[in-house]
Amino acid sequence: MTLQAQKPVHDGEKAHWLAVRPRLVLASAFMLFLELALIRWTGSNIVHLSYFTNFVLLGSFLGIGLGFLRVGRSQRQPYYSPVVLALLVIVVLAFPVTVDRNTEGVLYWTSLSTSGPPAWAILPVIFCAAAVILMGPAELVGRCFPELPRLEAYRYDLIGSLTGIAVFTLLSFVSAPPVFWGLIAAGCYAVLLVPKPPALYAGLVVVPAVAVVGLLLAETLTAGAIWSPYYKVTTKQLVQLGIPVTDIAVNGIPHQQAVPAAARLQWEAQYGLPYERTTKPPKDVLIVGAGSGTDVAIALSKGATRVDAVEIDPKLRELGGSTHPDRPYDDPRVTTHVTDGRAFLERSGDRYDLILFALPDSLTLVSGASSLRLESYLFTEEAMRAARAHLKPGGTFSMYNYYRESWLVDRLAATMQRAFGHRPCVDVVSTAGQQAVITAGVTAADQRCASEWPGAAPGTPEPAGDDRPFLYLKDATIPPIYVITLGLILLVSLLAVRAVAGPYRRMRPYADLFLLGVGFMLLETKSITGFALLFGTTWVVNAIVFAGVLVAVLAAVEVTRRFRTPPLPVMYAVLFAGLLLAWLVPNDWLLALPVPLRAVAAVTVAFLPIFAANVVFAKRFADTADATTSFGANLLGAMVGGCLEYVALVVGYKGLLIVAAVLYLGALALLPRRNSVAA
Description:
Keywords: Membrane, Polyamine biosynthesis, Transmembrane, Transmembrane helix. The chain is an alpha/beta fold and 679 residues long.
């Protein structure tokens, strides 16, 4: 293996005042922090990205790969990065976007009208800008690699990435507004970019950095927003029919209202119907999606003596406590749980007279690398079975929302029928927007329907399951909008790689590393979605899983650096064994375990193939002739893996394991002959 450090080749790097190791850690931390900040902030202003967050992620991966491939082809400092970041902030603040609710075949519901530029105009701008912005920090990281042994450089890169996650997670925990993200970005640019010549540095670094901080500060002061871990939350005080109302919007979308219980019951019949469909007044009530507190206030007004209020967003819960006119959260009968509803059902042993899913539409995805929404695991057949298990004898389960499509009402009703063993009550309160209430008792005798539901109409899709929790996707296909968009992304990426990195033959020797990157992204997606099911779709779980994946990668690097590991064919065998184990272990079995044992089993099942895959990568990477080109090829593979993740819409998340296995078989077949002989 070629482990000796190479001589520095960049004049800019020789002149840098910061030593290579701390510079590499800082640049890597900045790279991941900037990626997370872009995903979070652009999604709060461009509503398309609340549902296509991996669009920014794919652009980031492209930029990171290009940054590594650019090393050695230019000695200029990447001053373009802060300039493009400033331009992107200006464009996004000048042209915010909301999305039309009537778009077909897409996994979101959002605002009632469209404003701002259309998706075809703004999304390419966001994608290309994200790629160029991230290319700068990646180039700074890549320039450190030739100065260190391969695996040592990779090690410090991972340490930096973990640091970036930790810093962003901390800022999310304290609800820091984006101006703090801008300050960190400005500081990193100032430290990492060499100030030579001074005039160019001032014009291309200092001015854009100050502009970014100033614009984000202005947004923070003028929008009056509260930044939760999921949304930019804004409030407005209104008066409707003489009643004071607090209107709550998230990411620019009307989301909730804090309305007195009596007024809400008078204005909209759906809020009272769950109580009319029960055979006895419910005393113990569980409300999932408690939000600003109106549903809690209604439960108290109906005579509930104990209410467990589950809300995933801490800031929405805080707003409910401070703005709701009925002050329901101050009532001693109410206990608040800030967590994911499905996770609460899986962990709690309490039973209830009424379980209510109260408009739990999240309006955002779990992460930048999946099609999973925060509430996706609430509407599967397994979730409704879990809800039934928490009902007392004679209890009822109910949900209501504006479902938009009649087939969706039928799908949920059919799911409830399968979970409860009998037909539920279905009340379509208004055909405009398919405002409906669906209720089922533990037995058919425990519900009082106004009329019998005739059953699902022909063509209604099967109930969603935990493996394919895509409630809003009617057919097991990839919607055309995704296919077209992903195809264009791949085309642009091919052209960009050729323009920045030169002939493709530079990467030809590293085709196996490219496939390793594709497969790793699929494994990461499977881990994120699996842990979301087992422990909740909260931002804390998501951050822990991201960090856990990087820790597993770092552990693989450390083991490879310090110990004599088995030959590559043997490690590939361990990898395939890990994939087989992950395929064989059912989610139902893991969910049945106590939480501590569940955590141990889940970590073992999810991280064994990740660890083995990264031992394979570390061994192969250590033996490459060109560190930056081989690493860049791997990162571009991760971008393709982000596109391929949409295959889960057809085959389910478990099916991604088969796709990953095929990719790893391809990587093994493309392993250079000298590596096989040496092994």
